[in-house]
UniProtKB/TrEMBL annotation, chains A, B:
Residues 3-63 form the HTH tetR-type domain. InterPro entries: Homeodomain-like_sf (IPR009057), HTH_TetR (IPR001647), Tet_transcr_reg_TetR-rel_C_sf (IPR036271), TetR_C (IPR011075). It comes from the Bacteria. Residues 26-45 bind DNA. Keywords: DNA-binding, Transcription, Transcription regulation. This is HTH-type transcriptional regulator YjdC.
Length: 183, 183
DNA sequence: CGAGAGGTGTACCGATCTGTTCACGTTTTT
DNA sequence: AAAAACGTGAACAGATCGGTACACCTCTCG
């Protein structure tokens, strides 16, 4: 019961924070839009920061699961999967509510390195890097770590520019670069 | 007189917004830290939004001037300048107060496409793209427009990851990619 | 001198923020 | 059926937000 309400709260708060921003979204709005009273919210989370951290944990899980699965569905070789990532990103960019990377925005709003939100946001990027490194190693790249970091740069650049330009073109442009680098 | 105070206000407000964020920086703090009374601020700018737009205009001018000049100082061929951009970015990343791209953060905080701040933030990226395109054309790239957009993706990816990882390594990694793409 | 422009500091307005309190229902368990 | 657990709505506290009002100071210039 309690866990259900808690999970429902986190799940419904996610799009709120994603679309309105963290600071700009008040707890009264969270209560109203999630259907969970403010009293209950503060029974599950001591502060707004704890709720945001929980939301980011869910987002990390959802996003990485979605991306990895999509990469596997679109290609079966390691190199093919790395390239397919940019096709998956393109699909994401074309979604109506696309607003950029939630972790980049979290790090932008809570930019002190000592902030737990900032740290958790970067952790998401580190987890992506681990996965990319494994794929690069399986693809027998000369320097898997370096190639993985480069793929991450391409991914982040495409995400930021797609958000700012309201276009999915950066996905294809990043993919073109990845193709030449992985060749 | 008036213009001096106004310029001084914008100049001193810039690092405040850059380090604290736009929403998180209150007008009382702006008045206190810039040395310009709130009464005077609101004589020059009708709203906080207008002040932010003025700050972003100054930042655009300062940053583009600095980057273009640094690229010219470090190399004399068009291709060399494009590569030198990543060395210049590395210098920026190593500066003590580095906090990422102010325009990306502005677009993240004011993410509605109809928001004037969002529009002005993207305009900065468009101006960079114009410059890159001219350099790519001078470097006799096969497709100057596409190559310029790719260089912009590399630049934005490096900026975001340098900010999140508190490291200057993305500059060298992006440069390595640019070298292979421009070869 | 005297007027006006440009500036300051402070107090204030109404709204909104995070977080708490309290009295009250509803459901589950014993 | 009694009791504990879980939930609600609404009011509230204290702080802060963007923005305004007002009295005052200090120059410059005629």
């Amino acid at each position: 019961m309690s866990q259900n309400k808690r999970a429902e709260l986190i799940r419904n708060a996610l799009p709120l924070f994603y679309r309105n921003g963290f600071t700009a979204t008040g707890m009264d709005l969270v209560a109203k839009e999630t259907g969970v009273s403010k009293t209950s919210i503060y029974k599950h989370f001591r502060t707004k920061e704890e709720l945001i951290l929980a939301v980011l944990r869910l987002r990390d899980e959802n996003f990485r699961n979605w991306l990895y699965r999509r990469m596997e569905d679109l290609a079966d070789t390691p190199k093919g999967q790395l390239l397919a990532m940019f096709d998956a990103l393109g699909e994401w960019f074309r979604e109506p509510g696309y607003q950029g990377c939630m972790f980049v925005k979290a790090a932008a709003e809570f930019q002190q390195a000592s902030d737990p939100i900032n740290q958790q946001a970067y952790q998401h990027k580190e987890l992506l890097l681990v996965h990319f490194t494994a794929l690069c190693r399986a693809a027998e790249c000369a320097d898997p770590e370096a190639m993985a970091r480069q793929m991450l740069i391409l991914k982040e650049g495409a995400i930021v520019l797609a958000a700012m330009s309201h276009s999915d073109a950066p996905a294809a442009e990043a993919k073109a670069m990845a193709e030449r680098l992985l060749a």
